[in-house]
Amino acid sequence: MNRPLTALFAALEALLVAGIGIGLPLVPLTLLWAYQYGLQVDWVVFWRGSVDAWLLGHGADVRFMLDPLVAASVGFEGAGESFPITIAALGFGLLTMLLAQRAGRRIAETPHRLVGIGTALIVFFGISLGVTLSALHPLARPSIWQGALLPTLVFALGLCIGSEIARARLRGQRTQEKESIVTRLIDRVPADIRLVAGQILRGGTVAVALVTAAAAVATTVLIATSYGSIIALYEGIHAGVLGGVTLTLGQLAFIPNLVVWAASWLVGPGFAVGTGSSVSPLGTSLGPVPAVPVFGAFPAGDLAFGFLGLLVPVLAGLLAGLMVRSRLGDRSTLELVGIGAGIGVLGGALLAALAAASAGALGPGRLVDVGPNPWLVAAFAALEFGIPAILGLVSARAREFVTTAREASAEQ
Question: Are 133 and 60 in contact (CB under 8 A)?
């Protein structure tokens, strides 16, 4: 495959990734336009809605202005004024990253990897800018620079991850394949520092992954056990079949946010659904919330054994410390304490980044504060990961010391 064909292939990959992301909400909205509205509404309205949803899913802000009648019926303070929606439906961003990773692997298999990656990024940036400009409207205006840049950054991250995975796989097959700049820079770092940093990264990532997995299970259980409340909210909306399908797809895009909120709940700070509200292991205090059916799964009142959720991050930190200990070799107790603290800090930072990405403004008035507080999540997670990780590392060393002492006494 020569350079022009590689560039064309990469451009089509970028177009496919953007098209799938925008098409997912656009298809049901178009069916809604055709069958429920009888083609009486301008289809461009549904196009703009799909683009706004896609942009929001990548972190771009969209400023809304409600119709006076709608604003009066909402019941929230400030509903009649212009307000921003800044909360990201992370499902769209996650989909873009996964599709971009696949595209990156395919592009890296061509002889002209850099040409393909560069072309894909330029085309995706152009698509993001174009669709953002096409969605501008006085009642719903996305940020132009965020709409052009943030989806491209998400796409670039997935593209680079996929490309590096393919390069690592093909390095043994292509003798002319050179190491990347990042690999060469890492190789210059002393081996012991690389080992310690790698195990801190491994331990912190594993701790966050374990808490996130537990949060995903908890979210699934809550949705399944709150089926009646969710159905009641669906019935109260009177959206019809197609409207219900569209609403369900929108909520599916929001599921990653709910998982991160559940992880924040397990860590301790919980999350808010409006200023002054709180959903935490100590209890739930909610005011008026949007009539989103999946919000019916939120736990209500005080939970008798809610504090047991705090055991999840503690056990995750302990397992992370035990897992990395065998790879660190002979270390002093002070070094192990520092490594355990590093696992806690890194895990807290990663979980705080997820919390920040999942939070934002969901509407006017008190709905400007929705989601977890990333600073509190970072502080709680750093302690709940770090201290158990230190115990796991030091206890493994203590067991080694006891085993050595027993062997020595047996020889005598």
Answer: no
Closest CA to 89 of 251, 202, 222: 251
The separation between CA 355 and the C-alpha centre of its own chain, rounded to angstroms, equals 8
The reported pTM is 0.86
Query: Helix (H) and strand (E) counts for the chain?
Result: 13, 7
φ/ψ of residue 35, rounded to 5: -100, -35
- Identify the CA nearest to 254 among candidates 293, 299, 221: 293
For residue 311, which of 390, 225, 214, 200 has the smallest C-alpha distance?
214
The torsion defined by the Cα of 38, 291, 353 and 52, in degrees rounded to 10, comes to 20
Q: What residue type is assigned to position 44 of the chain?
A: V
| Residues near 286 by beta carbon (within 8 Å), at least 6 away in sequence | 273, 274, 277, 279, 298, 300
Q: Report pLDDT digits (tens) over 264-279.
A: 999 989 898 888 888 8
The whole-angstrom separation of Cα 128 and Cα 152 is: 7
Angstrom distance (rounded) from CA 350 to CA 158: 18
Could you give the CA distance from residue 94 to residue 17 in angstroms, rounded to a whole number?
12
Task: Report the candidate in 321, 314, 319, 315 with the shortest Cα–Cα distance to residue 397.
Answer: 321
**Which residues does 407 contact at the CB level (< 8 Å), separation at least 6?**
none
Residue 194, SS3 per DSSP: helix
Rounded to whole angstroms, the Cα distance separating 152 from 129 reads 9
Q: What 3 state SS string does 59-105 have?
A: CCCEEECCCHHHHHHHCCCCCCCCEEECCCCHHHHHHHHHHHHHHHH
Measured in whole angstroms, how far is the alpha carbon of residue 54 from the centre of its chain? 15
Rounded to whole angstroms, how far apart are CA atoms 237 and 118? Answer: 46
3-class SS string, 367-409: HHCEECCHHHHHHHHHHHHHHHHHHHHHHHHHHHHHHHHHHHH
Q: What are phi and psi of 146, to 5 degrees?
A: -70, -40
C-alpha 213/C-alpha 222 separation (Å) is: 14
Q: What digits encode the pLDDT tens for the residues 281-339?
A: 877 777 777 777 888 888 776 665 667 778 999 999 999 988 888 887 777 888 888 99
81-114 as b/e: b if 16+ CB within 10 A = eebbbbbbbbbbbbbbbebbbbbbbbbbbbebbe
Integer-rounded Cα radius of gyration of the chain: 25
